[in-house]
Design brief:
Number of helices: 10
Catalytic activity: Release of the N-terminal residue from a tripeptide
GO molecular function, one term: tripeptide aminopeptidase activity
Distance between the termini: 26 Å
Keywords: Aminopeptidase, Cytoplasm, Hydrolase, Metal-binding, Metalloprotease, Protease, Zinc
CATH class of the largest domain: Alpha Beta
Bound molecules: zinc ion
Radius of gyration: 24 Å
Strand order of the largest sheet: 1-2-8-3-9-16-10-15
Subcellular location: Cytoplasm
CATH topology of the largest domain: Aminopeptidase
CATH architecture of the largest domain: 3-Layer(aba) Sandwich
Structural class: alpha+beta
Strand content: 15-25%
Family: Belongs to the peptidase M20B family.
Shape: globular
Length: 412
């Protein structure tokens, strides 16, 4: 079906274009260079024969593959993002291809002695005998999420070239700025016009996710009183000591480094302090909505307690919700997960269904009216120099997309 050479060539044509996003920019896309890939993708969609290819003023790319059946079938969508993480440089990516991986160390960079080792990254052993694409150790790879784009593009091309595979209307969406949390912000759900969609933005082959964190950010501002230290008795209030009290009053084991699976946490991201004022930045995460709300309460109650203990409003805590667990929006339409699961089984992929310890664009889209589970794109070790992707996983993801299209036309 889809050849390795085709996939590799297409993938490399994407990752060699720098599309790093920038959280400090207010424009969309956050960096001008994202246009380079966005424009290329729009052209390519036209070349492979997609209809209604459109790129809007914010660089969102959309296109249609019309139905090739008479009966009414729901419109489904496939979405991936073309920016890469600002956590690590994405300029001058030089992908390295390792055919027939033997399970040993991969020397990414001889000069700097950078090694990708299965002793540290055990998942590598899952791919013995396969073709791996890695970095040269100096950049990230960008399989997150250019593998997803490559798979969607390849699947659409395959369906166009094989009209004997019957499917309903399919919409494709490529978005900027996912890595800075804004991929869904300017996504026009109405214009996209799908009944549901899938982001192709998961990691390991088989991943299928419809549950993510509920997320909030908290800023705790503590006011002190600065007085000359020699004459401070009874007068100085050192905001850093009160901050320490605050920090130590939260449950010590409920932090990222002590939790896994479905356990939530408080994460202290930064402390900026002087005697006069200290600011703490936290994020709060929990899959369970009730526990999530309770965590926010804990912080607010602690604020009130310390304020009454010190006799004035010295602490101000502001909490802002960031995104919610998409499970609530997916459960009423569980057949969209079932179709994806069955598609995987039919193409010989073992589904791995688990809760994401983070968010996806799909969670925001689900709350914007487009239910949107997440499917593996195949890569590992995102956002850094050890990122890699097995070509065989990309081919399987491409097959999963085609199969979902086919099953949707049969089952609904
Ligand atoms: Zn991603």
């Amino acid at each position: 079906m889809i050849s390795k050479e085709q996939i590799i060539k297409r993938f490399i044509s994407y990752v060699t274009i720098d599309t790093e996003s920038d959280p400090n920019s207010n424009t969309t896309p956050s960096t001008k260079k994202q246009w380079n890939l966005a424009n290329k993708l729009a052209e390519e969609l036209k070349t492979i024969g997609m209809q209604d290819v459109c790129i809007d003023e914010n660089a969102y790319v959309m296109a249609t593959l019309p139905a090739n059946v008479e009966h009414k079938v729901p419109t489904i969508g496939f979405i991936a993002h073309f920016d890469t993480s600002p956590d690590f440089t994405g300029s001058n990516v030089k992908p390295q291809i390792h055919k027939n991986y033997l399970g040993s160390d991969i020397l990414l960079n001889k000069e700097e002695q950078i090694v990708l080792s299965p002793d540290y990254f055990e998942d590598l052993r899952l791919y013995i005998g396969q073709t791996l694409i890695t970095t040269d150790g100096t950049t990230l790879l960008g399989a997150d999420d250019k593998a997803g784009i490559c798979e969607i593009m390849s699947a659409m091309e395959y369906l166009i070239q094989n009209p004997d595979i019957k499917h309903g209307k399919i919409r494709v969406g490529f978005t900027p700025d996912e890595e800075i949390g804004r991929g869904a912000h300017k996504f026009d759900v109405e214009k996209f016009g799908a009944d549901w969609a899938y982001t192709m933005d998961g990691s390991q082959i088989g991943e299928l996710e419809y549950e993510n964190f509920n997320a909030a950010a908290a800023i705790v501002k503590i006011k002190g009183k600065i007085v000359h230290p020699g004459y401070a008795k009874g007068k100085m209030v050192n905001s850093m000591y009160i901050a320490t009290e605050f920090i130590n009053s939260l449950p010590k084991m409920e932090t990222p480094e002590h939790t896994e699976d479905n356990q939530g946490f408080f994460h202290l991201c930064s402390v900026k302090g002087a005697v006069d004022e200290t600011t703490l930045e936290y994020i709060i995460r929990d899959h369970d909505k009730k526990h999530f709300e309770a965590r926010k309460e804990v912080m607010l109650n602690l604020t009130n307690e310390l304020n009454s203990q010190y006799g004035s409003e010295i602490i101000i805590t502001q909490i802002k919700d960031q995104y919610y667990n998409m499970r609530e929006k997916i459960e009423p339409v569980m057949h969209i997960v079932d179709i994806a699961e069955e598609a995987m089984i039919q193409v010989g992929v073992k589904p791995i269904i688990k809760a994401i310890r983070g968010g996806t664009d799909g969670s925001q889209l689900s709350y914007m009216g487009l239910p949107c589970p997440n499917i593996f794109a195949g890569g590992h070790n995102f956002h850094g120099r050890y990122e890699y992707v097995p070509v065989e996983s990309m081919i399987k993801a491409t097959e999963v997309i085609c199969k979902i299209a086919e099953l949707t036309a049969i089952k609904t």
